[in-house]
Amino acid sequence: MLTVVVEQAVRDKLTEGLDEIVREGARRMLAAALEAEIEAYIATHAGDRDEHGRRLVVRNGHARALREVFPATREQRDWVHKLMNVLEALPTSAQSAARKALAQIRDAEDHRHAEQAVRSFAELFGAKYPKAVAKVVDDAERLLAFYDFPAEHWVHLKTSNPIESTFATVRLGTKVTKGRGSRAAGFAMVLS
User: Fold this and answer.
1) What's the distance, CA 12 to chain centroid?
2) How many domains does the chain have?
3) Residue 96 burial (CB < 10 Å; 0-12/13-18/19+)?
4) How far apart are CA 110 and CA 36, in angstroms?
5) Do residue 37 and residue 63 come from a single domain?
6) Residues 69 and 136 in one domain
7) In this predicted structure, what is the pLDDT of residue 117?
8) Which residues contact 133 (CB under 8 A, 6 or more apart)?
9) How confident is the model at residue 62, as a pLDDT?
10) Within a domain: 2
11) What is the pLDDT of residue 99?
């Protein structure tokens, strides 16, 4: 019987090489899945334009590069993320009322009613929580941009979460396991 003895250092290098191959494969698969998801979403809404013929881009976070590449594109701030940011600036005792007031802005009948709801929010919370109110008032134009598009598209334009849903199963898996666990478990969650 032939026995092969492999030194630990050689075994570690082989393992590292295999791990890198798996990691690169996982990166490529995630990139392809995300690209396909984004392309499908963009194709669905490619024709959506406001009354001036401009496209609308839903975003969360900074968009300097987007403005440089597409200067005529209007921005729509993501309501899900904005809501979380505003609520974080408020004490727990005020969050329930603020959530209802923000929902009135987001779900208003039209642009005019949404602007009235922004003013009401500012009057209600401005004296005690100016930072939270500033997060809404300063971004009102970008939060309410979707009202300039046909009403049947409003539900899709309020949030970027359809794009983020690609990673929802991975996020759920890491919450259940309280982290990714081992390297192999992390890859299994990404690839499943």
Assistant:
1) 38
2) 2
3) exposed
4) 33
5) no
6) yes
7) 94
8) 121, 122, 125, 126
9) 47
10) no
11) 93
Q: Are 189 and 24 in contact (CB under 8 A)?
A: no
The predicted pLDDT at position 176 comes to 56
Q: What is the pLDDT of residue 188?
A: 64
Cβ contact 74:57 at 8 Å: yes
What is the pLDDT at residue 174?
A: 55
Give domain status of residue 91, yes or no: yes
- Length, in residues, of the chain: 192
Buried/exposed code over 56-69 (b: 16+ C-beta within 10 A; e: otherwise): bbbbbeebeeeeee
41 and 57: one domain?
no
Q: Is residue 74 part of a domain?
A: yes
Cβ 87 vs Cβ 139: under 8 Å: no
pLDDT, position 178: 57
Would you list the DSSP string of 32-89? Answer: HHHHHHHHHHHHHHTT---TTS--EEEESS--HHHHHH-TT-EEEE-HHHHHHHHHHT
On whether residue 39 sits in a domain, the answer given is: yes
State the Cα–Cα distance between residues 109 and 132, nearest whole angstrom.
24
The DSSP H or E segment spanning 74 is strand 74-77
Query: At which residue do the structure tokens 């969360």 appear?
Result: 60
Give mean pLDDT in consecutive 10-residue pieces for the chain, a chain of 192 residues.
62 72 78 74 66 61 56 76 90 93 91 94 94 92 84 72 56 57 64 58
Instruction: Report the pLDDT value the prediction gives residue 61, as an integer from 0 to 100.
Output: 47
Query: Residue 183 is encoded by which pair of tokens?
Result: 């390297």
